[in-house]
Amino acid sequence: MSLVKRVIQRVKRDYFRSQYQKAARRILDTRPLARGNLPFTVLSMVHQRDVHSYLLAVKSFTHFLNPSRIVVVCDPSIDNDDRAVLRRHVPHIELRDAHEFVHPDIPRGGTWERLFAIAHMVEDSYVIQLDADTLTVHPVPEVEQAIRAGHSFVLGEHPGTPRRTLAAAREYAKDWITPDAHVQAFAEVAMVDVGLPADAHYIRGCSGFTGFPRSSTMRDAMLDYSRRMTAELGDEKWKSWGTEQVTSNYLASNMPGAHALPFPKYGTPDQATAETAFLHFIGSMRFVNGKYEATSRHAIRLISNAAA
Questions:
Q1: Would the CA dihedral through 255, 215, 133, 286 be positive or negative?
Q2: Overall domain count for the chain
Q3: pTM for the complete prediction?
Q4: Structural domain of residue 98, as residue ranges?
């Protein structure tokens, strides 16, 4: 890409980001969230830069499914002012520190702390991992059905995302292997050879929205998986960004009723249709156009009208 094109791309990104931030701040004008009564927990890990985005994500989601428990694992960047904002808008929120959820057998950072927090909390509750860069704009009955049935779900990457055997997961990922391939591909190729259960499966999805049913074994399974993958790939590679996602996919894929949510009803904005209910604005799609801003404004109208 030429220098001129890079400059134009950056100017556009900065413009769309600023427009989004203006829209996102309007979430502060909405009423505090009332505690729900549905039997599950929503958990997120939040960085200081994402406080407004998180409030948009959690308020838009709970507009359709309001849980009895909401937990935030606070990135070290979260300060007392941020905590006050979060408590003002979600009075029953539980704020936990990332350093509470560390273990010598798993990496630190890269959202590993949130997955380890989930591994603790599923002992008492169904837990949904909700990223701050998500928005819910229509009912999500498939999610409610999974909660009530005690089934896990993963956010798929295309229509009909399958639950594969580990051998099939390797076949699917092996063509991506190059010396500089993403660590997720290396992990997906290696899983079949590290001594995991013979009947284990894998759904290739995104950890930004994942449902975990109650479990007394997730914590041990997570630590075992991380130990095996560290031994196979090496400590430095296993610390790379993206290893939490492949671990989340693996764990959810081997829980009862594991399945991918229907795509694009649950998916990314580039594939959205009029029926899309849940959108994940992953980094590469966040500020390339005005969709994040427009969808945020729409979500705020839904939230505001419900409270009127």
A1: negative
A2: 1
A3: 0.95
A4: 3-307
φ/ψ (deg, to 5) at 94: -105, 115
- What are phi and psi for residue 280, nearest 5 degrees? -110, 110
Q: Which amino acid is at 74?
A: C
Contact 118, 130 (CB under 8 A): no
Q: Domain holding 183: CATH number? A: 3.90.550
What pLDDT does residue 6 have? 81
Instruction: Please list the rounded mean pLDDT of every run of 10 residues in the chain (308 residues).
Output: 75 91 97 96 98 98 98 98 98 98 95 97 98 98 98 94 97 90 94 96 96 98 98 95 96 98 96 96 88 96 84
* CA-based end-to-end distance of the chain: 49
Q: At what angle do helices 243-253 and 183-190 cross, to 10 degrees?
A: 40
* Strand order, beta sheet including 266-267: 134-136, 278-280, 266-267
The pLDDT value recorded for residue 307 is: 61
Residue 236 makes CB contacts below 8 A (sequence gap 6+) with none
Amino acid at 91: P
Dist. CA 102–CA 222, nearest whole Å: 12
Q: What pLDDT does 259 receive? A: 98
Ramachandran quadrant class, 43 (left: phi over 0; alpha: psi -120 to 50; beta: rest): beta
Place of tokens 């200081």: 48
- Among 277, 300, 261, 282, smallest CA distance to 56 is for 300
